[in-house]
Amino acid sequence: IAFYTCGPTVYAPAHLGHARTYVCLDIVRRVLEHQYAQHRGGSSNSTMPSSPVPPPPLFVMNVTDVDDKILATAAARDETDSLSSPLALARHYEAAFWSDLDRLNVLRPHVVTRVTEHVETAILPYIQRLVDNGTAYCATSGDVYFDVRAFEDRTNARTRYGKLAPPVSATDFYSRLDQTAETVKRDPRDFVLWKRRKEGEALFWTAPVWGEGRPGWHIECSAMIQAVQEQFQQTHRFVVHAGGVDLQFPHHTNEIAQAEAHVLPDLDNVTDTTLPVQEWIPHWIHTGHVHIDGLKMSKSLKNFVSIEELLQDDNPSSLSSPADDFRLWCLGMSGSYRGPATYSRDAVSQSSHVREKLVRFLLDGERWLSQAG
Ligand SMILES: [Zn+2]
């Protein structure tokens, strides 16, 4: 199996909302890898005719290293600042992200896909394919949009647009759409695949047909999953896709629509009317938000605690481990991984008491066993 996790947009330090997602998914990964090791151990000792041993699970994560926020954050810096280049800024915060995950004892993915490294090879051909089969169009603004109605016209109940989106009222649904581009879109639900370069934007590519620009956020994951899938065609298939619950709509909803549109035949291939009934990735894991003082922890609300702050140990002792306390909190003491969790220093220090009791018990057990010979 292959497992894809939506990774960070790297323009600022990661906070505990991100940390909970990646720690929860790391726990799932460790369970899967443990199950795999057990299974492999069992099959090699079996007296039954041996079946080929499947390869270990493959974990893939993307890094969004080009995006509105990255460009705006870099542009707001002084020109003499080394982080005033969008790519330098992205690399800086990506390095900080991996360092944070290492300190939280989160295993690194086997494959990291950076958007900037896939624009020409994977993302542009993917968008072109959607245009060719009639599920995307270039608007008068020069931006390329996904055509939700065209997709719906050529699809079926299993691949309908929005199937993953949580039930939301129509007003709520539309309030979360990109209203700024209403005039150029064919349908309010259409979303951007290729953003035409705006004046002064420092990071861009030249598309053969649509000119200078950069990919929209949603297309990157569908296209990079496709690229990795082709690379590992013989051994792996993506069966799990994960991320924070706020990605369910619109990001994952749009990823699914793009991927299920990508396999539709070209418009001029009128003889082929068979529509694919196969869904894209069958299993989705969404982790809940972290709340603090009654509000969702977020960069925009500026109410976040950084991972760096979490891992500062006020009272270091031989048993202290703020990373393990946080992991235990994520494992169960913050409630279900799917629901919201309320963070406070007290909540994590309760995890610390439980963990230290467990560690003492294990250390005592070891000592008694060694004394007993
Ligand atoms: Zn994604």
What is the strand and helix layout of this fold?
Elements: E1 2-5, H1 16-45, E2 58-63, H2 68-75, H3 86-103, E3 111-114, H4 119-132, E4 136-138, E5 144-146, H5 148-153, H6 170-175, E6 192-196, E7 205-207, E8 211-215, H7 217-231, E9 238-244, H8 248-262, E10 283-287, E11 290-292, E12 295-296, H9 307-311, H10 322-333, E13 341-342, H11 345-371
Bound molecules: zinc ion.
Domain tRNA synthetases class I catalytic: 2-34, 59-319
Keywords: ATP-binding, Ligase, Nucleotide-binding
GO molecular function: ATP binding; cysteine-tRNA ligase activity
Parts with pLDDT < 50 across at least 5 consecutive residues: none
On the 0 to 100 scale, the average pLDDT is: 90
What compounds sit in this structure? zinc ion
Distance between the termini: 44 Å
Q: What structural class do helix, strand and pairing data support?
A: alpha/beta
Brief descriptors of the model:
single chain; 11 helices; 373 residues; ligase; ATP binding; 2 domains; 14% strand; tRNA synthetases class I catalytic domain-containing protein; alpha/beta; globular; Rossmann fold; binds zinc ion; five-stranded parallel beta sheet; Rossmann-like_a/b/a_fold; ATP-binding; five-stranded antiparallel beta sheet
Give a description of the structure:
The chain is an alpha/beta fold. It has 2 domains: 2-311, Rossmann fold; 317-373, no CATH class. Helix content is 42%, strand content 14%. The chain has 11 helices and 13 strands. Strands 3-2-1-9-10 form a 5-stranded parallel beta sheet. Strand 9, helix 8 (248-262) and strand 10 form a beta-alpha-beta unit. The radius of gyration is 23 Å and the shape is globular. The site of zinc ion has 4 residues, from helix 8. One of its GO terms (biological process) is cysteinyl-tRNA aminoacylation. Keywords: ATP-binding, Ligase, Nucleotide-binding. This is tRNA synthetases class I catalytic domain-containing protein. It holds the Pfam family tRNA-synt_1e.
